[in-house]
Specification:
193 residues; mainly alpha; 2 domains
Length: 193
């Protein structure tokens, strides 16, 4: 006879996690909860809402349990979930990354200058993730994506990258931007080493 899986306690390693400092984790939190509900046979609306608040930091638990959608028995778990998601606008798929995220990344790179190829690739991956999303949402153009990249680079590094680009693309009009991939490839090959 197969034993039924039980919901983890909040202190267990496999308990679902939501970090209010990183609101984008909310959707994953609800996905993890719903998977656990299925695996554990949790079907009651009130029980689902109770478990949804069980794994939260205390401050968030207090906020969530005061919602009408939590307290009111006629409100479903889906009603509750929708209301909770409304409390964290940045977890919306449409607001995954913003100009603030880009400014924060560049500011961090300025405060902690890139020193080696690993630092450059870490910055590039984060930069590409944010700016590609913003481009897909028509909040950033290709030229702006390329030009903004250099703001996060130390001046000496940018000068080496720019020199490499001039050698690699001698006919390039300096008034036009270099594609971001070309900038990264130039940096990745010679400029950081």
């Amino acid at each position: 006879m197969a034993t039924r899986t039980t919901m983890p306690t909040r202190s267990q390693k496999n308990a679902p996690k939501f970090d209010p400092e990183e609101p984008r984790t909310l959707n994953r939190y609800f996905q993890d909860l719903e998977e656990l509900f299925t695996n554990c046979g949790i079907t009651g609306e009130a029980e689902k809402k109770k478990y949804a608040t069980t794994y939260l930091p205390v401050s968030e638990e207090d906020s969530w349990t005061l919602l009408e959608e939590y307290k009111e028995a006629t409100k479903t778990f889906e009603d509750f979930k929708k209301k909770v998601i409304d409390l964290y606008p940045s977890c919306s798929a449409d607001r995954k990354f913003t100009n603030d995220d880009l400014d924060r990344l560049i500011g961090q790179a300025i405060r902690n200058p890139i020193k080696d190829l690993d630092g450059l690739s870490t910055f590039y991956r984060e930069y590409l993730k944010i700016t590609t999303f913003m481009r897909d949402k028509n909040r950033l153009g290709e030229a702006e994506q390329s030009r903004t990249f250099k703001r996060g680079l130390p001046e000496a590094l940018w000068n080496r990258i720019d020199a490499r680009l001039q050698i690699k693309y001698p006919d390039h009009n300096r008034e036009n931007h270099y594609p971001l991939d070309d900038i990264y490839n130039a940096a990745n090959r010679k400029s950081c080493r």
